[in-house]
Amino acid sequence: MLRIDKEACIGCGVCEEVCTFGAIAVVDGVAEVNEQCTLCGSCVDSCEADALSIETAAKSVQADLHRWSGIMVYAEYRHGRVAPVSFELLGIGRKLADQQKVPLSAVLLGFGMGDAAAELVSYGADTVFQVDDPALEHFTDEIYGNILEDIIQEQKPEVVLAGATAIGRSFIPLVATALATGLTADCTRLEIRAEDGVLLQTRPAFGGNIMATIECSATRPQMATVRPRVMKAAAPDQARKGEIINYRPAAERLQSRVRVLGSVLEEQDQVNITEGDIIVAGGRGLDNEKGFGLIKELAASLDGAVGASRAAVDSAWIAYPHQVGQTGKTVNPKLYIACGISGAIQHVVGMQSSETIVAINKDPNAPIFDVATYGIVGDLFEVVPKLTERIRERKGQ
Amino acid sequence: MDQIQPMNIIVCIKQVPDAKDVRLDPKTNTMAREGVESIMNPFDRHALEEGVRLKELYGGTVTALSMGPPQAEAVLRDAVSCGADEAVLVSDRAFAGADTWATTYTLAKAIQVNGPFDLIICGKQAIDGDTAQVGPGLGKRLDIPYVSYIRKITGFADGVLAMHRLMDDGYDEVEMPLPGLITVVKEINEPRIPSLKGKMKAKKLSIKTLSAEDIGADPASIGLPGSTTQVVKVFAPEFKGERAMLEGSVEEQVEQLLNKIEPYL
Ligand SMILES: Cc1cc2nc3c(=O)[nH]c(=O)nc-3n(C[C@H](O)[C@H](O)[C@H](O)COP(=O)(O)OP(=O)(O)OC[C@H]3O[C@@H](n4cnc5c(N)ncnc54)[C@H](O)[C@@H]3O)c2cc1C
Ligand SMILES: Nc1ncnc2c1ncn2[C@@H]1O[C@H](COP(=O)(O)O)[C@@H](O)[C@H]1O
User: Fold this and answer.
1) Are B62 and B84 a contacting pair, CB within 8 Å?
2) Which terminal residue of chain A has fewer beta carbons within 10 Å of its beta carbon, N or C?
3) What is the pLDDT of residues B21-63, one digit of tens each?
4) Strand positions, DSSP E, chain B
């Protein structure tokens, strides 16, 4: 419940203005709350008179919080390789583990994985729990979820991290639900509060317009999925020593009601725009499919991936997996070049965290320039081919 | 012939603020309230459309289900005008402040009270929290199989749905026996606009409302007290945009840009 201290309230009306939900009104000089309140807490922060607070019922705190110790990372393996986000997780995981003076472990699930576990050790894992089994050849939520749940129950890590990838975001919620603990999605910053070991999980919400810091203080483990390309992987060290444990799941834990018959892979470097360092993206300004070819050429000259606005995807110039934005993918490359894209908020939320953003647009008032590091006002049919040509020259291609 | 049975489908629909309107003032750190409109979560519109299409193919019913404040009735009426047969609003002040853990508990209870079902369809994610956790969590709560990010349903026979699941590197061909749950991506269909008949029906339909008591919810498991996560701070993102506009002829602009992006080449 939102509690209003009627003595302290000065009736200034700031809370009324701040509330997105129209849940507060000042009546006779005192704030009153109605049933629209969602307990989002923004009014509490805004109140200078400290008259507002949110009452939480005393939580039934898990009695054995202190028995949970160690940092665990789910290392994603699919189609012959460890997903790069796994190394990034080991990077941040190592930092958190060193701060807490606890071990860092990794869970590796798949089939025919070769020496992937050793690779995880070289990136910082002290222990790798690996299950290499034909039942894990294809990803299924149930089997992957069962095994991770069982390993967590046995090992009792205080923190569990996974990549905010298609796989991570699909089955980690199952594990958190099974363990009756909290899960924070798609984090971009993680810190442990030294006093009490609580993981402060920061993430974008409302399509990136708002950042929120979230904690899970009463249950363990504290679980988070982490956005790819945000955390830094450590340089691999082949000399690092670690233990690789072949974990044996019980037979009944290897059953899935869902059956995966096979995978159809798109060309990796072209489609997986969430992993690339450079993305060249095109929008309606390209006029037609042929125009969109300019984007592909520029991307090829930079060894980059191709992104697109929804307008370009809806015009069928390029397939949906290339769409960046609210209803497409969130990308985070070092360099994002937006050509003929107006910068509608639904597009911007998917790319605004890129390190450097270049915008090429003929309209000087296009909103894309608001998020651009460098802007060129000009006709993309002149600028883009020129740029491609000069890059090829510079690279001696 | 393969046996085809009618499907009773529940579509989970959330009312969300239109993301483009939601902003924090970076100076005061407060939410701008002006003109924030509530809409049906865009992914849920695709979930609804898929439910209605399945019903049209195989027979059965579509029930739109939402947990939210009383005004969430608006998205349920919207759903009925687009083809849902029934609408259920799970609403109680005690639900306020629910995280995904408390939300899946509440939705699961409501679904159990509502009666038998074959398929639950959720959107991939809600655009306010962007968590994508409610679908999978709900599947686990109800102990039914689920598959996320469905981009295409390719068949239904002998109680098994055949589908394509969108993955980061392509797609997987999967089969799931019903009852089960799927979450859908926008690629799956093109949602229809409300029909006149639908609009009339939506106007008249009385929406079934369930309170915490009606669904037999444990007060310690719902709303803020039932949540495992707490939001401790909200703040505005920092933008690094330097907005350096490159001037001059096309050649000059391109040269300047080349120098700026040199480190990436
Ligand atoms: C619920 C919802 C979800 C959405 N999700 C997404 C999403 O995920 N991703 C997304 O991208 N959009 C999304 N949209 C759509 C979004 O609102 C915009 O409509 C879309 O991003 C516009 O694409 P665009 O910038 O390519 O086209 P336009 O807005 O038409 O912009 C084209 C730009 O090209 C410029 N231009 C034209 N010709 C030239 C030239 N010769 N040289 C240089 N510049 C030129 C124009 O000045 C203009 O700025 C969503 C919308 C809704 C309602
Ligand atoms: N309060 C709610 N009522 C009904 N359905 C919901 C609610 N919250 C989430 N959902 C469903 O779960 C999906 C994922 O939501 P989320 O996990 O919040 O991103 C949405 O697309 C909806 O289908």
Assistant:
1) yes
2) C
3) 676 666 665 666 556 788 999 999 999 999 999 999 999 999 9
4) 7-12, 15-17, 24-25, 30-31, 38-40, 60-67, 86-90, 119-123, 146-157, 160-167, 170-177, 180-184, 208-210, 230-235, 244-245
pLDDT band at A57 (very low <50, low <70, confident <90, very high): very low
Residue spans of the domains in chain A: they are: 2-54, 65-254, 273-396
Ligand 2 mean position to A135 CA, how many Å?
31
Question: Hey, where are the domains in chain B?
Answer: 7-230
- CA A225 to chain B, closest CA, distance in angstroms equals 10
Residues from chain A that touch B256, judged by Cβ atoms under 8 A, are: 374
Taking an 8 Å cut-off on Cβ atoms, the answer to whether A370 and B243 are in contact is yes
Residue B180: list chain A partners with CB under 8 A: 257-258
One-character DSSP codes across A308-346: E-HHHHHTTSS-GGGBBSTTSB----SEEEEES----HH
pLDDT on residue A269:
47
pLDDT-based confidence at residue A60 (cuts at 50, 70, 90): very low
| CATH architecture for residues B7-230 | 3-Layer(aba) Sandwich (3.40)
Contact call for B229 and A215, based on CB within 8 A: yes
Q: What is the CATH number of domain A65-254?
A: 3.40.50.620
Q: Say if ligand 2 is within 6 A of residue B106 CB.
A: no
Note the pTM of the prediction, 2 decimals: 0.83
Superfamily of domain covering A273-396: TPP-binding domain (3.40.50.1220)
Residue whose C-alpha is closest to residue A230's, from A203, A193, A270: A203
- Chain B partners of A264 at a C-beta cutoff of 8 Å? 170-173
Query: Measured from the CB, is residue B126 less than 6 Å from ligand 2?
Result: yes
CATH 3.30.70.20 fits A2-54, yes or no: yes
What ipTM is given for this predicted complex? 0.85
